[in-house]
Structure prediction request, 292 residues.
Amino acid sequence: MATLRQLEYLVTVVDTGSFTRAAELLHVTQPALSHQVRALESALGGALLERLPRTVRPTPLGRAVLPHARAALADAERLRAAARRTIGLEEGELEVGTVHSIALGLLPPVLRAWRRLHPGVRVRLREYPHAEELRAATAAGRGDLAVGPVPAEWDGPVRELGVEEFVLVLPPDDPLADPPGGVLPLAALAGRDWVHYAPGHGLAEVLDGACARAGFVPRPAVRTEQTAAAPVLAAAGLGPALVPATVLPPGLDAAVLHPDPPIHRPLAAYTRTRPDRLTTAFTELLATRARP
Prediction:
């Protein structure tokens, strides 16, 4: 099997017309150069070069091989250049897995900043409805970096990012829309019909768990699969909603209150193995700009 080094030797000998000059340019001894050319000829099944008194010329087999050798060397150089540009954060692609609520609320400002800093590096998002699906997909090799709730029983590197804060959304004319200090005991909503999330949605567990700790089970008025729909439905009067503060749409005509006790979800960025430079750079930006 021909190696790139052997192809480089062949091309250099042809271009210089001399084994001696080629050896000087390649910083190898002439015997070593001749040995590698003979090995290439043996691998390809025939002589590639003809030695003449004052020069070296390719044989018919050599002329047939030469364009492919040049193309292989050019491809290898493009590969090295692409690697250098990726290491230098000039180009490449980063695959980020996350859950729906974070893709909607936490990541957009980070992605905007990343785009300004590294316009040649594309980011591909993989979105999952539940943190456990995100964890399982990341463990299975899908994505370079996961951004979501802190995973349980994770063996790879984990970078904590802070917490995701949740707020209550009520219509502006709700009798409980203006509590002292904007803080409403969650138990005060025990008898209400709620804007809930579809089964399997990660925020359904957040809402059920918070209400259980407050001593009641939330009764769904409507269930949605879309995180962004929950505050809009609550503002329309279908029931209170518990949503990440980062997903509230601008200009929402609603009462936005802080639950008592506060509801938070720890967040992290995590990888399967030690992250490369590209993944590390994105994680650092995430840690500095996306902290709730």
Summary: The first helix runs from residue 4 to 16.
